[in-house]
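Progress against Task 2.4 (sequence-to-structure conversion) is shown through the following example record, which the project officer requested during the mid-term review.
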Amino acid sequence: MFALLLAWILSREVRASTQLWVLFLYSFPSEFLVGLVPHEPVLLYYGVHHPAWIVALVAVVSTVMAEGMNYSIFDFFYGVPALREASKKKAVRKIMDLFDRMPFWATLVAGFTPVPFFPVRFLVVMTRYPVWKYLLAVLVSRGPRFYILALSGGVLDIPGAILALLFAAMLAAVNVPSLFRLFTNGFEGKDGA
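Structure tokens generated for the chain above:
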């Protein structure tokens, strides 16, 4: 995942490419674990260069594959005793119980709307929701979302500079708070020592 992301960041030719294989590969780091990079600006960009249904199809196929990997990875790590113990905390149990009432619908809503999706990745494993149902919900929710984004990109024909600014803003919004916590707590310790 990180190699794909690094190749995309370091290669101007890859970033500027309108070839669909680049979109396919880009979907992996954008949908992996907590999503290191945003997918929205990229789908808007590809919507300018390809029919929306093709962009949506390529993006949703790679996203379903990435989510299958996410499920397997989280399932593997969920076997760690410390994580199993964390899921027994009262607040976590409440969230799991709430999700478990309508997991398919919760996944649909999180997959289609701008609501952060990464908590669902944890919850499906923690509640032992079947992987095939999860991947079906991802397909059904993400496909239309990706289509709307690609169609919007084609209709609005947003200039590349604006898409680059949108990408940078979304990237910062997702990653800067985590980096800030890492640098303030990680290197100094939680007590500031």
